[in-house]
Amino acid sequence: MQIQKRLKTYTSEQGETAVKVLSFHLLPVVIVSAHILVVLLSVKKDLFPGPDAWMAILTTCSQIIAGLYGITLAGYTFFLSRIDALTASDATLDYVVVNIKTRFKYLIWYITFCVLAALIISISLMYFPAPESEKIGFLYRLICNEFVLFAVFSILLILYYSILVVDPNCIVKEAAKLKRKLGGRFSAPGNAVEFITLYDRIEKRCIEMLPTEALQQLHSNKGPHFELTLELLKAQYPMLHPMFPDLNRLHRYYECTVNCTPIAVSQEMCSLAARILGFLSQASSVVPPKNE
Q: What gap in Å lies between CA 114 and CA 70, rounded to an integer?
């Protein structure tokens, strides 16, 4: 039964990897093919609409794109407010939310670029009427078709963003993806109760190594985010710097574990937690703080 479960998990992860690899190679092919299609359509003079029909298309598409972009930015602002409110109420969402914000930020940049390119082309075409020369006519049709291409890309990206932003399992999916990266895909399963217990002891040990007044001041202003405790610990104990990459990795893995289902951990991370706890227990009595 355990072998079947691990085989199912492995197959699912392999499928996700295949989709990502396929998407990575497929996107340039789609972009190049779209531009080739634009060139081919520009050669066919008969397929190009008349000046009046084209100006109507240009005006309508520009208005649609501008309206959709405005709604998208308003929705993005609301999304950031909602996700910041979740982070303020749940201190274990910091790492997951940062990655979600980064992904959506890049998506908004792509949408902005496509919308800006479409609007610049549309404004330029409104100032320059259709030429009568065939050589310049091909260039004019090419620019017009490029506008249509950027308009289509803008609308598709906005629709893709809309689907992502309303996904109720956005945080759970992101946490599961990040947990696989941090804990390894092929590690043996570990004991979740043991891992959470070790992490709780590590957190308490880190808090004990810092002055109570400093932590109270920090938590009262910024909230009980363990990342702040780690930063303060790093500043207070410079000799412990080699340990902090593993400690940060363990903390991020814990945040991902408690925010996705089922709650499962790898044996590798359980062993790492045990090593860090042992190291902290020894270091707290041997390594002096910075101000001593």
A: 14
Nearest residue to 249 via CA among 178, 193, 148: 178
pLDDT > 80? residue 227: yes
Q: What angle do CA 188, 21, 106 make, to 5 degrees?
A: 100
Helices 226-236 and 244-258: crossing angle, nearest 10°?
A: 170
Q: Three-state SS string across 226-269, please? A: HHHHHHHHHHHCHHHHHHHHHHHHHHHHHHHHHCCCCCCCEHHH
Q: How much is the pLDDT for 133?
A: 66
Is the backbone of residue 223 left (phi > 0), alpha (psi -120 to 50) or beta?
left
Q: What's the CA gap between 257 and 238, in Å, rounded?
A: 29
Q: H or E segment at 32?
A: helix 2-43
138, burial (CB in 10 Å: exposed 0-12, middle 13-18, buried 19+): middle
The predicted pLDDT at position 24 comes to 43
Per-residue confidence at 230, pLDDT binned at 50, 70, 90? confident
CA distance 258 to 276: 20
Q: What is the pLDDT of residues 110-133, one digit of tens each?
A: 999 999 999 998 888 888 777 776
What is the structure's pLDDT at 47? 65
Contact 97, 83 (CB under 8 A): yes
Is residue 8's pLDDT more than 90? Answer: no
Contact 286/199 with Cβ under 8 angstroms? no
